[in-house]
Design goal:
Strand order of the largest sheet: 2-1-3-4
Number of helices: 8
Shape: globular
Number of strands: 4
Radius of gyration: 17 Å
Structural class: alpha+beta
Strand content: 5-15%
Largest sheet: 4 strands, mixed
């Protein structure tokens, strides 16, 4: 069993943090997406979407998409739970994880991929206007998270979860577009708390 990734990318980092929280060790194979290695014939056979990470099981089965990989390991090793245990917990965590993914991670990626000339090979055609249009979306989501964290310690409730992993990676990823948390005190306290976890350096 192994995970194919580019260790510099945000989605592989989400999986690494998730596995570190679980205490699961796995082999990693590095590829270079800037060199187009994710579009090779071998990678396309594993994942026709040409995206990473990809989990390759011992029988050759390939599982791609970050959350699908996390769900696989959550089912294999439920403790500690990172995706909820009750119906309500699972729904709320999934809700916030999806919101963070769509309203923070994706807009940051769009700014980067459409405004940075070095990303031209990955985003063709680049549309700089679209990249810039996503900057206020990032700021809006930061305001939402700051307000939500006024009365709880973690994104989806009282316990650390996959939603926190996605939000941590998203807020750290903002450095590539020269954006930060700023004066949002609740979000800053949360970020300090989750960044102090050993898994954050995975």
């Amino acid at each position: 069993m192994k995970i194919i990734e580019d260790g510099r990318a945000p989605n592989p980092r989400r999986v690494r943090i998730f596995l570190a929280e679980k205490g699961i060790e796995i082999d990693y194979e590095q590829i270079d997406i800037n060199a187009g290695e994710h579009k090779s014939e071998a990678m396309t056979a594993l994942n026709p979407m040409q995206r990473i990470p990809v989990l390759v099981l011992d029988d050759g089965t390939a599982i791609s998409e970050t959350i699908a990989i996390c769900r696989y390991f959550e089912a294999l090793q439920p403790d500690p739970p990172l995706m909820g245990t009750t119906a309500l917990e699972k729904a709320v965590i999934d809700m916030w994880q999806r919101r963070v993914e769509e309203k923070l991670l994706m807009p940051v990626a769009q700014v980067l991929r459409h405004t940075n000339p070095r990303m031209a090979a990955l985003e063709n055609p680049q549309v700089p206007e679209w990249g810039e249009a996503n900057r206020p979306r990032v700021e809006w989501m930061l305001d939402v998270l700051d307000a939500e964290l006024a009365d709880r310690n973690y994104i989806a409730g009282n316990d650390y979860s996959l939603a926190d992993i996605s939000a941590l990676v998203g807020t750290d990823f903002m450095r590539v577009i020269k954006t930060d948390i700023g004066e949002r005190d609740n979000l800053r306290r949360w970020h300090d708390r989750v960044s102090a976890r050993p898994s954050a350096s995975a």
